[in-house]
Write a structure and sequence with these properties.
The chain has a domain at 45-269. The chain is 86% helix and 0% strand. It is built from 21 helices and no strands.
């Protein structure tokens, strides 16, 4: 029990660091969006910029970001756990070589057929806007190359439970985009009229290249051994391919959902694509900061338990990871829903900027419905990796295919009735459906893993989140009446009072009233970090 508790504490320490760097990355991502939307507005220009990510991101996600990393980490980790590093490095080299070949082919074909692909993803755009999407898409194909290199590097480093450099990569990426936009948007506008936003596209490529560059020292420190091999008969590579194929199919199907949503949004009013993208980025703040951080930290531990046959430890760790994610993501979702307009107003509306109150309303409308699914998409990151750690990539794919069908059907049905809000609601409902299916299938695979305890924890979290949401709403209303919301200072004061009050109430309810173990774990980690810093300061003074 002590070993498991020690392992859990190490996981939370890793998750804490990942969360810290993710927060910095999200802050930089926010600043990036502030610069973009206040310089260009939330209109067809920013619709074009957001749409230009679609095809390069699709190529990266299918080749590396989803399928390869999902299959590579458990296999590479199994080699490490069984002291077979030489075989592991050989597998990594073969994977790297083939990914490079496929990327070159994919980018070449993508550049040739970009106009045809763009007509599929944004059929509602006018001709000039489509031409801009084509040019920016071709530019950002370089991003897919560098992000793929980063993805493989991060998979290797995470397998060794090295999280520092991979976590810093996201910070460097967003910093590169900001620098590219600040220094290039103006000059590009002069050289290439109408394409000022291309400066940020160049920044995307720069950020992706720096993201990879920062991983290289970590790989060298691990003693990475590269071989020029394309041997597909290698046992590890064959196992990886068997794991990748179902994930690849699932990702291909899931991308249909994104393409359908963007296609439907392109027929809505100017700025609808950007409003959806902005709302989804805000939705993914708690998921990225907390859920993905916890899932990434748990993943190597789950894989090690699975590789060594410690199924009971595996089930307990997985269940606690899911409960912890929901414990954090549920109140975050309620807070975003209740404070959506004050948050977006404070984040993006600036005097003299082109992000208007109408832009705030359009984004807040989508965010309201995106918030419904935050807890589900957060928990999915944990349970999906739990399947992958068992080297089962088929089950999540089967669940995902059913989910995508639900999402597409709901999107077509709701978009006419609720515009971008309907697309966001369809996305959230599909995520909840996906989570329930995955949890049921996991129970069939490994047996009971504390379902009643998870349900009880979920209901406690819902109750505490509702109480917290009421407090946040009342504080926001009172603050607006007393201080107003015209200035940035008054907006900040409104949010600060609302959020601090909400967090205090939530922690009090969950820890002092409901005695939730998740609350004790989270506050315990925070207190240990605070005490460590206090001790370090005392030692320094001595």
């Amino acid at each position: 029990m002590e070993n498991q508790q020690g392992s859990r504490n190490r996981v939370y320490q890793a998750a804490g660091f990942i969360m810290f760097t993710t927060v910095i990355s999200k802050v930089l991502g926010y600043l990036r969006d502030v610069f973009i939307y206040n310089q260009f507005g939330q209109n067809r220009i920013t619709d074009v910029y957001n749409a230009a990510f679609t095809i390069p991101d699709l190529l990266y996600t299918i080749l590396v970001g989803g399928a390869l990393c999902s299959a590579f980490v458990p296999i590479f980790t199994s080699y490490i756990a069984t002291n077979k590093k030489e075989e592991g490095w050989q597998v990594a080299s073969i994977v790297f070589n083939w990914v490079m070949v496929l990327l070159v082919v994919g980018i070449g074909l993508g550049c040739i057929f970009t106009p045809q692909l763009v007509r599929l993803i944004v059929p509602g755009f006018e001709a000039d806007a489509m031409d801009m999407v084509v040019n920016l898409t071709r530019l950002m194909f370089l991003q897919a190359l560098f992000m793929s290199l980063s993805g493989i590097s991060m998979g290797i480093l995470n397998s060794f439970k090295q999280f520092t450099l991979p976590a810093l990569g996201g910070v460097i990426y967003n910093l590169g985009i900001i620098l590219g936009g600040l220094f290039l948007a103006g000059p590009i506008e002069k050289i290439w009229p109408g394409y000022g936003i291309a400066g940020y596209s160049v920044g995307v490529v720069l950020g992706a290249a720096l993201n990879f560059a920062i991983q290289v020292p970590g790989l060298r420190k691990l003693g990475m051994k590269y071989t020029r091999s394309f041997n597909l008969k290698n046992p590890g590579v064959q196992r990886l391919l068997l794991l990748m194929v179902p994930v690849l199919i699932g990702l291909s199907v899931s991308q249909i959902n994104l393409l359908v949503n963007q296609s439907l949004a392109s027929h809505l009013t100017d700025g609808a694509v950007a409003a959806l993208r902005t709302a989804q980025r805000i939705m993914y703040i708690p998921i990225g900061v907390f859920a993905i951080s916890i899932a990434m930290a748990f993943y190597p531990t789950l894989t090690t338990y699975a590789a060594n046959g410690h199924i009971e430890d595996y089930k307990q760790s997985m269940a606690f990871g899911i409960r912890s994610v929901i414990y954090i993501c549920m109140p975050a979702a309620v807070g975003l829903a209740v404070l959506r307009e004050p948050i977006i107003r404070f984040m993006f509306e600036f005097q003299g900027g082109k992000f208007t109150p109408e832009s705030t309303s359009a984004t807040a409308y989508a965010l309201l419905f995106y918030s419904i699914g935050i807890f589900a998409y957060g928990a999915i990151h944990v349970i999906t990796r739990a399947f992958y750690s068992l080297q089962d990539t088929v089950t999540p794919v089967l669940a995902g295919v059913a989910t995508i069908l639900v999402n597409v059907i709901l999107s077509f049905y709701l978009v006419d009735k609720m515009a971008q809000g309907g697309l966001a609601l369809a996305y959230s409902l599909a995520g909840i459906y996906n989570l329930f299916i995955l949890m049921a299938l996991m129970r069939q695979k490994v047996g009971p893993y504390g379902g009643r305890q998870m349900l009880f924890s979920f209901l406690q979290t819902c109750f505490a989140s509702v109480v917290m949401g009421c407090v946040a709403y009342m504080m926001a209303c009172i603050s607006a009446q007393i201080f107003g919301d015209a200035s940035k200072f008054s907006q900040l004061l409104q949010l600060a009072l609302s959020i601090v009050s909400a967090v205090v109430v939530y922690l009090m309810v969950t820890e002092k009233m409901l005695f939730m173990p998740e609350a004790k774990q989270v506050t315990g980690v925070i207190m240990r970090r605070f005490q460590k810093k206090k001790k370090d300061l005392a030692d320094a003074e001595e």
